[in-house]
Amino acid sequence: MKIYHKFLLYQNKWIYPYIHRALSVMTDITYLASILMIVGLVYEHGFTISAAEYHQLQHLYHGVWIVFLLDMSLRILLEYKDTRRKFSKLTWTLTGLLFLTLVPVIFHRPEVDGAIQAAWDFLNGKLYHVVLLLVLSLLNLSYGLVRLLGRRTNPSLILAVSFLFIILIGTGLLILPRSTVEGISWVDSLFISTSAVCVTGLTSVDMASTFTPTGFVIIILLIQIGGLGVMTLTSFFAMFFMGNTSLYNQLVVRDMVSSNSLNSLLSTLVYILAFTLVIEGIGMVAIWSDIHGTLNMDMHEELAFAAFHSISAFCNAGFSTLPGNLGNSLLMTGHNPFYVYISLLIILGGIGFPILVNFKDIILHHLRRVWHFLRTRHWDGRHFYHLYNLNTRIVLIVTFLLLLVGTVGIAVFEWNASFAGMSMADKWTQAFFNASCPRTAGFSSVDLAGLSVQTLLLYLILMWIGGGSQSTAGGIKVNTFAVVVLNLVAVLRGTERVEVFGRELSYDSIRRSNATVVMSFGTLFLFIFVISTLEPNLSLLAITFECVSAISTVGSSLNVTPLLGADSKLLVALLMFVGRVGLITLMLGIVKQKKHTKYQYPSGQIIIN
Hints:
By secondary structure, this protein is mainly α. About 70% of the residues lie in helices and about 0% in strands. The chain is built from 25 helices and two strands. The chain has helices at about 5-45, 50-80, 80-85, 90-100, 105, 115-125, 125-150, 155-175, 185-195, 205-210, 215-230, 230-240, 245-255, 265-290, 300-315, 335-350, 355-375, 390-415, 425-435, 455-465, 480-495, 505-535, 540-550, 565-580, 585-590, and strands at about 500, 505. A two-stranded antiparallel sheet has the order 1-2. Helix 14 packs across helix 15 (about 300-315) and helix 22 (about 505-535) crosses helix 23. The N and C termini lie far apart (about 80 Å).
């Protein structure tokens, strides 16, 4: 080896640790700058600020801009090979857009009118700078959150903490002066934020008279984030925009979104976001087509109303901007399509993203068969019996049965009661709508406190079961309910294996399902007991209904939520959080996991009779 080669080798070994340390410090500074950028924007748009505060915020944005420029420049100059490998094409695009902000700094504004001057003004404009810095801040924080997975941190704990973090941010945003008409207490702000992020729909205040359009925008953003899942969004941003992540990170994210393999991980995340946006977009158009010109709104208000309720329905949130929720008198006459569209959005959001992906595969399969026939004039007559996977079959069948039983049961018990005076079409539409809402949506078109006891019992069981796994819905999930019922049937029939559709259910699925049911009953009993002690004036049925609605992230109530004290509201908010994160997920994050042992104890029998 030549002398100068040795010199370069030793020089790199001596310099590289310092470079790595400097970049690590720069990364931490960039995280802090990202947080300050978001806080600054919230302060600017949430409060009425003075001219001096406005100039201070501009200095803050300028400082964040310098930090991002330094971070990108140092990474390109000092670690170009690693940066080139890690950064995706979109990240390089954003980097290029960031460096374009130097154009107004280096060059003076052109004196001649034209495209060049317009481009200079655009690059020097506040909108371009703020939007670009906000996007970079969100992507940077998303990548940092996913990097935590690489530190062998408990994924269940990270999932729970991420939801808690968004809830606290939402609490701060909703308490801002511009978010409400006359202010709101921190307990109510925390309650509404938790209800929105956990896509529940329980409200401790009158939504229509409390929140401004800014407040409703914050609420719908919290609903969208909570419905998709914090880790789903952050993982998508980190992998799609920020480049490669570690293998361990990808394995953890794969388990969170139930992807079949690492190769399909990014595509699964894309499908989740694409399905959400497409279905919500179609739902928005359908809702607007029905309410157009009937609610005394202008075009802008109608589109905002349609978008809000489409997102709220698909995410199974149950929030509405109308006084009286969806029982408003303007909607109750001549708007049956509206209630059907809302119900269909609730069902699509509640069956689960894995099933929507399975639907996509089935549709593509049939389209390929049609395309093959058009090209060759020969129909592919082969039959495929496993296009619908086991999870899809179980969820669709149980969902159909629950909707059928719920619709018929509510129609029978409320035909001449709450539905009295309606036409037959209205009665069946309302029965179907009210059977869909307990699937953790929480909208209401009639006063639930006026329903019969039998209908309320139907509501309780439908709320407790909820929707499908990996969906925007809550409850113990129809997957869990189906497995528990199939296991019960197997026990009664005396068979050792639980079989369905030519498949044997795994032992782990049965154990987790039974554990979920037991934990659900135990948690409900504890909270009902405590809240009934704190609220002795409320009936046990109303408290039970409230607790089941909270832990199942439904949002239906017997009008007792505003009557709860501060302590009870905090307990109900905790129930909503537990229900959204998931009992099993939350306990896995708290309880220390026991290591697998290679030995096995002798089996023992316990008398069960």
